[in-house]
Every structure is written in structure tokens, then in C-alpha cells.
Amino acid sequence: MKTVVRAESQKVWTGSSPIKDANLQLTLIYLCRDNYGDLNLLDTDNIIKPIQDALNELVYEDDGLISDVESHRRFLSEPIDITNLPLLLQEGVIIGEECVYVKVSESQPLEKYL
User: Fold this and answer.
1) How many C-beta atoms surround the C-beta of residue 53 within 10 A?
2) Which terminus of the chain is less hemmed in, N or C, by CB atoms within 10 Å?
């Protein structure tokens, strides 16, 4: 997963250099098949680290800048309303293709999360 995320990120990342000084939030949405033999492979915590590592030195200088993580997994077999989804996720749902949506943004004050 790390290699694929890195390659795809390089195609769309428009920043001139990695972010060096910020508290960042990483938002992940993983659309996947549900016919895996071992569902532990799909644990959201197992998905986070390879994606964080893939973005090191491309999007941000070090994944230590990530102070907040929001991670979601949905099975493609579930009904998913695509109305307000980003284009990548809409396409993934429509064609039934596994995909990961990654958003890096500035962290919010703690009270915004409560």
C-alpha cells in the first residue's frame, strides 16, 4: 500500500516542498472489498501508518507533524451515498474499485473535535 500511495500522491501533490512547521491532521477514507480472509488486514489502525510513511518528505517533512488522525473504512458492498463524496471516492464506489482518499490539513483546536 505504501508504494501505491506514494506514487499516486506524487501525481497530484502540488506543493513545492514538504510542509515543515505545522500541526497537521490526516484524514483517511478506505473503500475496500469485504471478502478478505483475515479482517485484521483491514483494521483502520493498520492502514494509517503505511499511508503516513508514504507521505513523508513529499507532503510533510516528517510524520511527527501529524497530531490528529481520522480514519474510516467502508466496504464497497455497503450502500454508499456518493452525492457529497470527492470525485475519487465517487469513482471508486461506481466502479467498485478499492481506493484510499487522503486529506492533509491543518489541525484544529482540540475543542473542535469534542
Assistant:
1) 14
2) C
